[in-house]
Automatic annotation (TrEMBL):
Transmembrane segments: none
Name of the protein described by the UniProt record: SAM-dependent methyltransferase
Taxonomic superkingdom: Bacteria
Organism in which the protein naturally occurs: Vreelandella olivaria
InterPro entries: CFA/CMAS (IPR050723), SAM-dependent_MTases_sf (IPR029063)
Database matches in PANTHER family: CYCLOPROPANE-FATTY-ACYL-PHOSPHOLIPID SYNTHASE, FATTY ACID C-METHYL TRANSFERASE
Length: 184
């Protein structure tokens, strides 16, 4: 069993906006229908026991209320990104993933559909506006590949900005004297 990250759970009630207050009970109902294990969900000073009895037991601590929106609108990918950002934590992440896998049909039909499907549709519509016309291609390339010289300066030759392999002569090691580019 793994442990929760070092930050202790917040024991104060977590402020929630209207949308989160509307989404949270619906998502909790979906988690409560899980079979094969139980999730103990801690949020602020509240504790909920969700799911059916089974061999998998996991404690989830909600650290930020945006986790609910990210799960609702992003599905399992939103939940994973929310975890990486520290919005929630689990004492046994492997058991939680196994519990989701054991309930894959429900995850696919309930959590990956509905609001998550709508959010994917909006994202797809936004991508359609980034067509690969001549100006659009330049913009897309700049957004994805123009990462600046700082990264390349860490592994390219300082003088020629080239990447090459080492050439070791038998009589003298290559690191003792620079080799001309023509020898490569």
């Amino acid at each position: 069993m793994t442990t929760l990250r070092s930050t202790p759970p917040n024991i104060q009630p977590i402020a929630q906006d209207r949308l989160t207050k509307w989404l949270k009970p619906r998502l909790m109902a979906q988690l409560d229908a899980f079979r094969g294990g139980r999730i103990t969900l801690i949020e602020g000073n509240q504790c909920h026991h969700l799911g059916q009895q089974g061999p998998l037991q996991v404690t989830v601590v909600i650290r930020h209320s945006r986790a609910w929106k990210r799960l609702a609108f992003g599905g399992t990918v939103g939940a994973a990104e929310s975890y990486m950002d520290g919005d929630w934590d689990a004492d046994d992440l492997v058991a939680l993933v196994r519990l989701f896998a054991a309930n894959l049909e429900q995850v696919n039909t309930k959590m990956e559909n509905g609001s998550a499907r709508f959010a994917r549709w909006l994202l797809g519509a936004a991508y359609r506006f980034q067509r690969n016309s001549l100006s659009g291609s330049k913009r897309n390339i700049a957004a994805h590949y123009d990462i600046g010289n700082d990264l390349f300066s860490t592994f390219l030759d300082r003088h020629h900005w080239m990447y090459s392999s080492a050439v070791f002569p038998i009589q003298k090691p290559a690191w003792k004297r620079p080799r001309p580019i023509s020898s490569i």
